[in-house]
UniProtKB/TrEMBL annotation:
Its main location: membrane. InterPro entries: MetI-like (IPR000515), MetI-like_sf (IPR035906). This is Iron ABC transporter permease. It comes from the Bacteria. One of its GO terms (cellular component) is plasma membrane. It is found in: Cell inner membrane; Cell membrane.
C-alpha cells in the first residue's frame, strides 16, 4: 500500500494542471459573468429571474432555440445513420474520400458556413428560386450541414466494429434486411446514436456564427441573444439568466451523453470486428441518400468558390487581389492576408496548449479506478472538460473581459488571451480523440512493464505511445482546424488592429459594397481551404475516434 502513494501523488499533481487551467479560464469567467448579472451592487437579484425569462425577446429566443435544435437533431440523425452505414460498412470505391468530404463541414468556421449558405440561397444564387434566404429553413440546413459529421463518425465507428455473425445468423433464419437491422443492428447502435444525437442537440442549441449571419434580426437563439444583451444593450443581468439556463441544459445533456457513451464503450468492447461487405440491391436507398448528402455538403462550398471567382458574372481574380487591401471605404484596419497570419499564429499557440492539456486529461480519465468513488471522480473530471463545448462562447469571451482585468490576472490586453479561449474550445475534442485510443490499451501490458521496473513515464512511452501516436497527430490537426475557425469568443477578444480571419470576414459582411462582399467570399474560400487541407491530412491517419463522441 505505501508504494502506491508516490504514484497517487504524481497523478494528483498532474491533475492539478488542467484543473487549474479550467478553474481560472473557464469557471472564473463564467462565474464572474453570472455574478455580475445576478449580484449587482452587492445584492442578489434572483427575484427578477422569471421576469427576464418571460419577456418576449428572451421567451422567443428560448422557444426558437428549443425547436430548431430538436428539428436539427432529428434531421441530422435521420440522414447521418444511413450515411454511416454506407461509409463504414460497405466496400465502396472512394469511401475514404467521401468520409473526408462529409467530415470537413464540422471543422469549417461558422462564418464560412454562413457565407456559403447565403451565397447559395440569395436571389441571385443557384437556389434563390426557393426563397428561403434569411429564413429558419436556411438556419436548419446550415445546422444539419455543420453537425452531420458527428452522427456519421460516432455511429460509423461503432457500426464498423460490430460482429457480423449475429446479423448473418438472423438472415440465415429468414429475417429480411429490415428485420435484421431492427432486431439486431439497431439495439447495438442505439447507445452511439443517443450519444451522437445528444451532442448534435448541444451544438445546434449553441450555434452562434451560423444563426448570427443567416438569422439576422428575425431569428435569435440563446447564444445570439446573450451576444445582443452583452454587446448592444449591456444588460448583463438578463445575459446571466440566459447563461444559467444554458449551463443547466448543457449539464443535463452531457450527463445523458456520458451514460450513452459508457454503454457504447461496453458494446464496442464486447463486439467483434466487422469488416466491409459488398454492395447489395437492398442498399440502393442508403446509397442514393448518401449521394444526396454528399451533394448537399458540396453545393454550398462549390457555390462559394465559383462566386469568389466572379464579379458581375465575369470571371476574375480581383476578389483575391483585393485581399491585400483594406477594403472599400476603409472597412478593415489590416489586410486579410495579415489577419490570416494572425489566425495561424494564434491557432498554433492554442493547439499546443490544447494538446498538452488534452494528453494529461486523457491519461487521467482513462485510468481504471480501484473503487467506485474513484471511478466517479474520473467520470466527473471527463465531463467537466466537455463543458466548454456547450457554454456560450460569448459568455466565456465577455467573462474574460470582466474578470481577467486586474492583477495578478490582468490579461485583457495580453496576446495570450485568444489562444487560451481557443484552447478551451479545442480541448474537449482532443480528449475525445485520444481517450478511446488509450482505453483500448491492455492494462496488463502497463502492469507487466511496471513489474519489470519501468517508471510510469517509461511505461507510457513503450506501451501507450505506439497505440496513441496516430490519434495524437489527428487530435493536433483537429485542434488546429477548429482554432483557425473559432469565432464566438474571438469576436470579443480580438483587438481591432490584430484580428483573426473569421473576425475580418464578419466585418466585411457587415460593410456595404460589392468589393467588401467579394473579399468576404474570397477570404472564406481561403479559410475553408486551409481547414479542409488540415482535415484532409488528418483523415489520412484513419483514426475512427476523431470527431466521434
Amino acid at each position: 500500500m505505501p508504494s502506491r502513494w508516490p504514484r497517487r501523488a504524481a497523478l494528483t499533481a498532474l491533475a492539478l494542471i488542467p484543473l487549474v487551467f479550467l478553474a481560472v479560464f473557464f469557471v472564473l469567467p463564467v462565474g464572474g459573468m453570472v455574478l455580475r448579472g445576478l449580484h449587482p451592487d452587492g445584492s442578489w437579484a434572483l427575484g427578477d429571474t422569471w421576469s427576464v425569462l418571460s419577456r418576449p425577446p428572451e421567451r422567443q429566443a428560448l422557444w426558437f432555440t428549443l425547436w430548431i435544435a430538436v428539428l436539427g437533431t432529428a434531421l441530422t440523425t435521420a440522414l447521418g445513420v444511413p450515411v454511416a452505414y454506407v461509409l463504414y460498412r460497405l466496400r465502396l470505391p472512394g469511401r475514404r474520400v467521401l468520409r473526408g468530404i462529409v467530415v470537413t463541414p464540422f471543422v469549417l468556421p461558422t462564418v464560412v458556413v454562413g457565407v456559403a449558405f447565403r451565397t447559395l440561397l440569395v436571389q441571385s444564387g443557384p437556389l434563390g428560386f426557393l426563397n428561403i434566404d434569411a429564413s429558419w429553413v436556411a438556419i436548419l440546413l446550415a445546422l444539419v450541414f455543420f453537425n452531420l459529421a458527428v452522427v456519421v463518425r460516432t455511429v460509423g465507428a461503432v457500426w464498423e466494429g460490430l460482429d457480423p455473425r449475429a446479423e448473418e445468423s438472423a438472415a440465415a433464419l429468414g429475417a429480411s434486411p429490415w428485420q435484421v437491422f431492427r432486431t439486431v443492428t439497431l439495439p447495438a447502435l442505439r447507445p452511439s446514436i443517443i450519444s451522437a444525437a445528444s451532442v448534435v442537440f448541444l451544438f445546434c442549441a449553441t450555434a452562434f456564427g451560423v444563426v448570427l449571419i443567416l438569422g439576422g434580426t428575425r431569428y435569435s437563439t440563446i447564444e445570439t441573444q446573450i451576444y445582443l444583451l452583452t454587446t448592444n444593450l449591456l444588460d448583463l443581468r438578463s445575459a446571466a439568466v440566459l447563461s444559467i439556463v444554458q449551463l443547466l441544459a448543457v449539464v443535463v445533456l452531457l450527463w445523458g451523453a456520458e451514460i450513452a457513451r459508457s454503454r457504447k464503450q461496453r458494446t464496442t468492447v464486447t463486439a467483434g470486428r466487422g469488416g466491409l461487405r459488398a454492395v447489395r440491391f437492398s442498399d440502393a436507398i442508403p446509397l442514393a441518400l448518401t449521394g444526396l448528402v454528399v451533394l448537399f455538403v458540396v453545393a454550398p462550398l462549390a457555390t462559394l468558390v465559383v462566386r469568389s471567382l466572379q464579379i458581375d458574372g465575369v470571371w476574375t481574380l480581383d476578389n483575391y487581389r483585393h485581399l491585400a487591401s483594406d477594403g472599400a471605404d476603409n472597412a478593415l484596419l489590416v489586410p486579410v492576408w495579415q489577419a490570416l497570419d494572425n489566425s495561424w499564429r494564434i491557432a498554433i499557440d492554442a493547439t499546443a496548449m490544447a494538446v498538452v492539456l488534452g494528453v494529461i486529461v486523457s491519461v487521467l480519465v482513462t485510468r481504471r479506478g480501484s473503487t467506485r468513488h474513484t471511478r466517479g471522480l474520473l467520470t466527473a473530471l471527463d465531463g467537466a472538460f466537455m463543458l466548454p463545448l456547450g457554454i456560450s462562447a460569448v459568455t466565456v469571451g465577455f467573462g474574460f473581459l470582466i474578470t481577467l482585468n486586474h492583477p495578478p490576472l490582468d490579461l485583457r490586453s495580453s496576446p495570450i488571451l485568444i489562444p487560451i479561449a481557443q484552447a478551451l474550445v479545442a480541448l474537449p475534442l482532443v480528449v475525445r480523440t485520444l481517450a478511446p485510443a488509450l482505453r483500448s490499451t491492455d492494462e496488463r501490458q502497463r502492469q507487466a512493464a511496471a513489474a519489470l521496473g519501468a517508471s510510469p513515464l517509461r511505461a507510457m512511452v513503450t506501451v501507450d505511445l505506439p497505440v496513441v501516436w496516430r490519434p495524437l497527430l489527428a487530435a493536433t490537426g483537429f485542434a488546429l482546424a477548429v482554432s483557425l475557425g473559432e469565432f464566438g469568443a474571438t469576436s470579443f477578444l480580438a483587438q481591432p488592429d490584430h484580428p483573426t480571419l473569421p473576425v475580418v470576414i464578419y466585418a466585411l459582411i457587415g460593410h456595404p459594397g460589392a468589393v467588401n462582399f467579394g473579399m468576404a467570399l474570397a477570404g472564406s474560400v481561403v479559410l475553408a481551404g486551409m481547414t479542409a487541407l488540415v482535415m484532409g491530412l488528418v483523415e489520412r491517419l484513419h483514426v475512427t475516434s476523431m470527431g466521434a463522441f
